[in-house]
Specification:
five-stranded parallel beta sheet, DNA replication protein DnaC, Rossmann fold, 12 helices, nucleotide-binding, 247 residues, 55% helix, 5 strands, ATP-binding
């Protein structure tokens, strides 16, 4: 094995993927530009770190489980006036995650709750936070089956290790008393350990009917709203107003 192949082999074993893939061009570039040894090593290490950061960001994005990618810049503040540009700019600083604050977006379908929650989650991923996105229905399924399903157990493990959990569509489907208790246990486990974003079509005053127990509802809301920003998003459905027609 010649020296070039040996370097590539060592780089692969040391997980130096940039060096392994680009060793030939690195050497040619160093010869052409008469790069010093220090500059050469610094360039290689900088590119290794950049590649590792990129791969870590890609893993976080995959693990987040977003159903679709939404960006803050695509959120139409002219259509949805219940939240201001100033509030958006404050939220994308993401320090509320470090402070264990929760966000609740309430409102009818189509007003931008899911778009905004995914966009904030994507921003959090870009900034290095571990994020999990899940609908309330899928969350209940995962909680109920985690003892018998490896997939469900893995999903709950990721949720419990996340810095931000996004629960979408709370209140769209009825839940049982067992599911309400499991939801309470999860909220308790995450309390002051992670931030939450919850989207719901029901006002907080209607959560008792959803969870089926006034005392349990009070306990859940007590934990969620302890540090919380509540956004009541009103208006028409963006999807209905901008629906596309075949003809």
């Amino acid at each position: 094995m010649d020296k070039l192949e040996l370097i590539k082999d060592y780089a692969k074993k040391l997980n130096l993927y940039y060096l392994n893939s680009n060793i030939t061009s690195i050497i040619e570039n160093a010869d052409t530009k008469d790069v010093s040894y220090q500059e050469l090593l610094l360039s290689v290490l900088e590119n290794e770190l950049a590649l590792k950061d990129k791969k870590a960001q890609e893993r976080r994005l995959k693990d987040a489980g977003f159903p679709i990618i939404k960006k803050i810049d695509d959120f139409d503040l002219n259509f949805q006036r219940s939240i201001t540009k100033k509030q958006i700019n404050r939220l994308i600083e993401m320090d509320w995650i470090d402070r264990m604050y929760n966000l609740i977006f309430l409102g009818p379908p189509g007003v931008g709750k899911t778009h905004l929650s995914i966009a904030l989650g994507h921003r959090a991923v870009d900034m290095g936070y571990r994020v999990s996105f899940i609908t309330m229905d899928n969350l209940m399924y995962s909680l109920k089956t985690q003892e018998i399903s490896r997939k469900s157990k893995g999903k709950i493990s990721k949720i419990l290790s996340s810095s931000l959990l996004i629960i979408d569509e709370l209140g769209y489907l009825p839940i049982t008393r067992e599911e309400a208790n499991l939801f309470f246990q999860l909220i308790t486990a995450l309390h002051e350990q992670a931030s939450l974003i919850i989207t719901s079509n029901k006002g907080l005053e209607d959560w008792t009917e959803l969870l089926g127990d006034p005392a349990l509802t009070t306990a859940v809301l007590d934990r969620i709203t302890y540090r919380c920003e509540l956004f009541n998003m009103t208006g028409k459905s963006y999807r209905l107003e901008h629906r596309e027609s075949l003809f």
